[in-house]
Write a structure and sequence with these properties.
mainly beta; Porin; eight-stranded antiparallel β-barrel; two-stranded antiparallel ribbon; about 10% helix
């Protein structure tokens, strides 16, 4: 599912708070890319916490990325940016005949439970040196959805898909980490690359969602076992931060 389709689905929920938040996200993305001072991408491990852990007992995995429009500098240790993440918290696959009239052709049916989050990111960090500790604050929300897709066994090409269930949850949290220099001059931060290691705790509001085993086919009909809880997550990240060419303000 494309990002534009996900945004459209969120808007059609006719929720003004969601629309307001989405407008902020789109406005930040519309800023000229030259305004960005640094950007990062991370592999993400997600651990359900609290009520969410009672419902979902498996680990999630995915990717996250951030664009920092203001990065900590010698003159000011504060930064602000935008963080986006995609997490798969459950999946199932099975082999099925294409139809009752074509039982001798089989396809792969894959179901994925996903969470896409959008956060405003506030950073306070050490602005100089080869090792830079920092702390973060985040505010935003998560789009939680389950999709089922049908793929050819021969080529793996998807030819049909559907969103089974979706919902929205607000989220906020905090975290911290270390940026460790990999290449470049830490005194100027012009095109420097840092290893980024961090952890976060995200408090998620109550939402309805599906998990592994929540979709059942009974007498040719689909039945959903819907879960409802808060959606707290612990996330662990490992990746890189790249600082673009800019002249630091002393």
């Amino acid at each position: 599912m494309g990002l534009e389709n996900i945004f459209e689905k969120i808007i059609t929920k006719d929720n003004m708070k969601k629309f307001l938040f989405l407008s902020i996200v789109l406005s930040l993305f519309s800023l000229n890319q030259s305004l960005a001072q640094s950007a990062g991408i991370n592999l993400t491990l997600a651990i359900p916490s609290g009520e969410f852990k009672e419902k979902v007992d498996n680990l999630g995995f995915g990717l996250s990325g951030n664009i920092n429009f203001i990065s900590p500098k010698p003159k000011s240790p504060f930064g602000i940016g935008l963080n986006l993440g995609y997490i798969i918290y459950g999946s199932e696959s099975r082999r099925e005949p294409l139809s009752t009239t074509i039982p001798d052709v089989f396809v792969n049916v894959d179901r994925t439970n996903s969470l896409m989050n959008f956060h405003l990111l506030f950073t306070v960090g050490v602005p100089k040196g080869r090792i830079r500790p920092y702390v973060e604050g985040l505010f935003g929300g998560s789009y939680i959805y389950t999709t089922t897709s049908v793929k050819s066994q021969g080529t793996g090409e998807e030819f049909a898909s559907s969103t089974n269930f979706d919902d929205w949850a607000w989220s906020y949290g905090a975290g911290g980490g270390l940026a460790i220099l990999l290449s470049g001059d830490p005194n100027t931060d012009q095109n420097t690359v840092y290893l980024d290691l961090k952890g976060r705790y995200l408090f998620g509001s109550e939402a309805e969602y599906l998990k592994q085993g929540s979709v059942r086919i009974v007498n040719g009909r689909v039945e959903y076992d819907i879960s409802k809880s808060k959606t707290d997550l612990i996330t662990i990240h490992a990746g890189v931060i790249i600082y673009f060419s800019w002249t630091p303000q002393e």
